[in-house]
Write a structure and sequence with these properties.
Elements lengths: L5 H32 L6 H36 L5 H37 L2
Length: about 120
């Protein structure tokens, strides 16, 4: 199946890059909030949860960086016409799947973090 609309794909890739950069900023903000929470008196269970969020945010930042590199690779392949349509389709489909997964997991993490903050405020 030939890729006929490179402009459409390129525009989608630009949106993904923008979304990933915004996610990166949000991760930094969540890490700062987490740092503030560590200044509170926390029980052992809460400290374990803090560590969980620290690790999860580090991992999400790694995923953002990996995804950005893959989107850039896809853009480079398209702009240089380097690779067959089949390769570009495979890369684009993988990117789409990875972006969908990242978005879903990041929303879940964000909601879990909000719930944790509410639980701390409720005590």
């Amino acid at each position: 199946m030939p890729i006929e609309n490179f402009d459409k794909l390129h525009k989608l890739h630009q949106e993904w890059k923008k979304d990933l950069l915004l996610s990166e900023k949000e991760i930094k903000s969540l890490q700062e909030e987490l740092t503030e929470l560590t200044r509170q008196s926390l029980n052992a269970e809460q400290q374990v949860k803090i560590e969980h969020f620290q690790n999860a945010l580090i991992r999400q930042k790694e995923v953002v960086n990996d995804q950005l590199q893959m989107v850039i690779k896809g853009d480079k392949m398209m702009s240089e016409n380097d690779g067959s349509d089949a390769q570009l389709h495979m890369l684009h489909n993988k990117l789409q799947e990875d972006m969908d997964t990242f978005d879903r997991l990041f929303v879940d993490l964000r909601e879990e973090f909000k719930a944790f903050k509410r639980s701390l405020a409720g005590e």
